[in-house]
Design the sequence.
DNA sequence: AAAAAATGCTAACAACTGTTAGCATTTTCC
DNA sequence: GGAAAATGCTAACAGTTGTTAGCATTTTTT
């Protein structure tokens, strides 16, 4: 009767959730079975239900934890009145890059598997996302008004920035010459500074 | 006994494949049942097998058709010796944008569901992708040597460019003020021209 | 050390999966 | 119009799915 190992900082539910994040990313939510997950944490499938309510609950946990992390960073950022629009956008981009580097499993699940959230969670998640994008648009708009950002479609900019960092997924697959720090600097330079000489 | 409608330019297999692309995108490959697909084309599940070999075959069809489209464009582009590196990169980016706008279903399936390809198809697909990325890197490298592109990590640039256009997925969801042409120009300006004033 | 709580196990369920067999009907071809 | 090909249907298969019930064991608390 092997127990799920837990530490002071990590409940058994937490261990299961992180294992689920890895599996949901690798195999997708639908293709991941509770028996896969149980095997990964070293237990029978039925035993999982002493710690979680359902497979869906795991997905909710993962998705909203990530959504909250992004929202919290933006909240904190907006309280600082001294930073310029460009600086704010750069801080957001850097935060996204680090999240994609440090917490790839969860971030990818929140991006790719959130469609399997049940209602009303799915609607809530999509709505939070919409609001988040809108808030970023407003920062861009402010930067344009201040003459700091050249005149450009704010919506397109935000879509571009938020998607561009997804390339990090492939960097993970083939960890090569380039380090995380290098990758971050190159991406920031490319996205904020532009490509042309 | 309702037949699957077909036209001169579109075999029944083609009709099924495009319906599959839409469902695979919406619900994911694993969560899409053959009975869903059958219902969508107005037929019983078993009847599909008069036209296709398996569910997997549909995924292969979709993924490699898209992969071939991108490779073909790059082949054509590279035969033209008159274009500069920047022009080539811009042409590639524009092609990606148009593919994401015009053939969203198939492109998204090739991106998100290719992991469900069986071997050896999955390995082949990933390899083709790797080679494609490498070829783009070489164009960037050439541009740097020519002094046309500022010194920057080519691998990071390619990852950024190829991922940035994925933002179009969300544009599709909320077709708003901004037109496809506007979106393309904004993205190109942002990615090629840079953000800073 | 006894009682209570936590955690694990096996067995089972109903629903759903992709696919095949066998047969009926419609369309295409000569 | 008759033969051959194409396409559809129903029924069924073996396997897998998430989850629950009931019970055994271990850990924690008193």
Sequence:
């Amino acid at each position: 009767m092997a127990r799920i190992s837990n530490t002071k900082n990590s409940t058994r539910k937490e261990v299961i959730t992180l294992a689920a994040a890895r599996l949901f990313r690798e195999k997708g939510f639908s293709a991941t079975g509770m028996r896969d997950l149980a095997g990964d944490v070293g237990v029978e499938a039925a035993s999982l239900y002493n710690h979680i309510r359902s497979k869906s609950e795991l997905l909710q946990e993962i998705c909203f934890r990530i959504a909250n992390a992004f929202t919290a960073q933006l909240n904190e950022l907006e309280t600082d009145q001294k930073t310029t629009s460009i600086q704010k956008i750069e801080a957001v981009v850097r935060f996204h890059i680090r999240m994609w580097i440090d917490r790839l499993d969860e971030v990818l699940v929140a991006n790719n598997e959130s469609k399997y959230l049940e209602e009303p969670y799915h609607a809530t998640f999509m709505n939070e996302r919409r609001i988040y994008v809108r808030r970023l648009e407003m920062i861009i708009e402010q930067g344009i008004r201040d003459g700091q950002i050249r005149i450009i479609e704010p919506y397109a900019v935000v879509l571009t920035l938020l998607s561009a960092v997804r390339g990090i997924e492939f960097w993970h697959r083939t960890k090569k010459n380039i380090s995380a720090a290098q990758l971050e600097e190159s991406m920031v330079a490319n996205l904020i500074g532009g490509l042309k000489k």
